[in-house]
Amino acid sequence: MKLQGTMKVNKNGHLEIGGCDTVELAKRFGTPLYVIDEALFRQNCRAYYRAFTEEHGVEVIYASKTLSNLAVCHMVEQEGLGLDVVSGGELYTAATARFPMGRVYFHGNNKSTEELRLALEYKVGRIVVDNFYELERLNELAGEAQTRAKIILRLSPGVEAHTHEYIKTGQIDSKFGLVIENGSAMAGVKYCLELPHIELKGFHCHIGSQIFELDSYAHAAETMMDFIHTVYRETDYLAEELNLGGGLGIYYFNGDQPRPVKEYADVMMRALQERAASYDLPVPRVIVEPGRSISGPAGSTLYTVGAIKDIPGIRKYVAVDGGMGDNPRPALYQSKYEAYIANRMLEEVEEKVSIAGKCCESGDMLIWDIELPAPQAGDLLVVASTGAYNYSMSMNYNRLPRPAMVLVSEGKADVIVKREDYTDLIRNDVIPERLRSSVMKLASSR
User: Fold this and answer.
1) Residue pair 304/31 in contact by the 8 Å Cβ criterion
2) What does the alpha-carbon distance between residue 157 and residue 407 come to, in Å, rounded to a whole number?
3) pLDDT tens digits, residue range 58-110?
4) Is the distance from CB of 76 to CB of 62 less than 8 angstroms?
């Protein structure tokens, strides 16, 4: 397993994160347990701020869909980044954390009326509009509120990034955005310019996630600048802002080769500047939306090993006390992770095993065919790079409570998300009176 951030092996052969012994973390907080390395999270924020904001004047907004809670919102604000939200829930989290609403961008391909009203009420910086229906609805709601909604129009640039089919978003066949190639994007621009309660600030695109090929970003920047020029030529409207999304890949598994943030920034901005110069147009104010590359490497998950099932000549299954409930990505995307036995970091690998979750699904497998020291019941397994899309996609399948999350730094560990218990699972359950009365009758007849 590749050690990242503040990870190190201590004299007891245990893995430490943020100066905290993971064995002690498990004893204190239980497992499964999400562990966030505060220093690494902040380091990743700062890498973006230096490479994009300080060197190129680009606004960096953190994609909170990867990992959102009150503590994360506070860290993001402290590091000088804005916030990208995609639902009323994420927006409410930001507001509760008192995040500056002027630095919040509200995304989503099917925002509800209630969510749009909330965005207008909170006075978010920008609403990223995805389609004609949303344009019409937002114009009506802004009119009712006697304001003009500042928007960025999301476009599909027709750029296919090399990544999993489910996390591609920039191709023509996508549920996101208005397509440039078929004329929908231009029609959307012209419609925006007619609406009395809409203020079009610019355009947005996002080509996908977990991307390593920087040429894809350069191509997207050029395509969007081409469109800005075409729009200016046809309508005399010159976009002030251009949001080029995020999606930079991180290290999950042997073979992944993340690119430096500075290289990403330089490649994308060079392409944009050169294309703008070719049209004798100014470079718009640029925004980028990193998420995974900030939160992903900063997170790890601790599990306790339980049942071990050996099928001679076939496979050895090592079951842990979590699984797809706290990390559905392997089941959804066939995502690969690396892991190690956190209480036996100095021991040599001995055998190939597969890590199974505890949900009643054959597909609940965290890792297939990993080489580890011979696992034993009670061992502490650590899975790395789980900071993005693990907690945020977690669920209560099989009525399993969601894990706690701790933030570790300089030997201190603080709970930032409480562990759910069984009472949380039934908190919103309601028994209709007709069922309650029939149960009472059955009980009295026994």
Assistant:
1) yes
2) 38
3) 999 999 999 999 999 999 999 999 999 999 999 999 999 999 999 999 999 99
4) yes
- Length of the chain, in residues: 446
**Active-site residue, selected from the candidate residues 20, 45, 205, 360:** 360
Residue ranges of the annotated binding site for substrate are 292, 329, 333, 361, 389
Ordered structural domains, the chain, with CATH: 8-36+300-426 (2.40.37.10), 107-290 (3.20.20.10)
Q: Both tokens of residue 396?
A: 């209560």
What is the separation of C-alpha 20 from the centre of its chain, rounded to a whole number of angstroms?
A: 25
Residue 45 annotated as catalytic: no
Helix (H) or strand (E) holding 15: strand 15-17
pLDDT at res. 171? 55
Among 337, 334, 348, CA closest to 383:
337
Share of the chain above pLDDT 70, in %: 97
Q: Give the separation between CA 157 and CA 271, rounded to whole angstroms.
A: 15
Closest CA to 224 of 265, 173, 279, 263: 279
Model confidence pLDDT, tens digit, residues 399-418? 999 999 999 999 999 999 99
Residue 313: φ, ψ to 5°? 80, -5
How many CA within 13 A on the CB side of residue 69? 20
Residue pointed to by tokens 């973390």 = 25
pTM of the model: 0.94
Binding annotation: 247, 289-292, 329, 333, 361, 389
The annotated binding site for pyridoxal 5'-phosphate is made up of: 247, 289-292, 389
What SS3 state is found at 5?
A: coil
Q: Are 15 and 345 in contact (CB under 8 A)?
A: yes
Helix (H) or strand (E) holding 195, with range, is none
Cα torsion 334, 336, 340, 342 to 10°: value is -80
